[in-house]
Amino acid sequence: MAYQEKKWQNFYENAWAIRAEFMSQFINMGGYNALQVIGELEKKERYYHLAINDDGNYEWKRKKSESEKFNFADIPHYGITSLNGMTILVPFYTKTNFIDFIIDALSFDEYDSVVELGCGYGQNLFKIFYNGGGVNLRYFGGEFTSSGVEMAKKLASIEPNMRAEFFHFNHLKPKFDKKLDFGKRVLVFTYHTIEQVKEIPDNWFKVVASIAPFVRCINGEPFGFQIKDLGEVSKEHRKFFIKNGWNLNFASTLKKANQNGDIIIEDAMLEHSCRTDPFNPTSIAVWRSV
């Protein structure tokens, strides 16, 4: 049975709304393109995170770092990440660029559109547009939260050369409006959005595979711990997901969809990550329609 705890739905609705309020001030000032607005938020979130205080209100809270700092500014030397099941110390700005992976994937085949499911305020799609996606590609973003969809549309309104469309999408009840024209060949991707859904439905892959004559999907989701322990991080990863009520059936549902002939799995990696969160590494699954 597909399931997601209500508290996580509410958390992300509120979190995107607060981020939208922060970004809107730059749009209202004028002179900013979408990528610059997104950059302002990312700059803030390198040092602050949204937290819920004792009164139940959201606030920006300074991140803690055990690293030594530069003398001239409060910038850490190092950060902690994980690789192959082990925590490692890396330079503060080290981070796997999943979006470059999507951009490169787009360049190795012909696609009419790129679709992100669970797109938040569309930040990944705008980055693709500015860093190699081009103006001929169509961009679609599906998002559960109303605040995320509204902010994505607001950012798209200041990018007249980007053919972008944003719509409501629910991982628990995957369906697409027939008015959405994705074209004949589509690249779909998700990135750490299915993770918050405790159980995705059995038909998730079949529904996504049916949106166009040819669909390829890249899921950048944390599911490696569901298959094999690579080290201590994998064990902590599993405990963290069980505690939060996060996804535990991605791997089994993917395997079942492949066995049923709904999709064809092309690639799978237990870990492909040096994320800022050391205990939530990314796994990769690439599959296509039959």
TrEMBL record:
InterPro entries: SAM-dependent_MTases_sf. This is SAM-dependent methyltransferase. It comes from Campylobacter lanienae NCTC 13004. SUPFAM superfamilies: S-adenosyl-L-methionine-dependent methyltransferases.
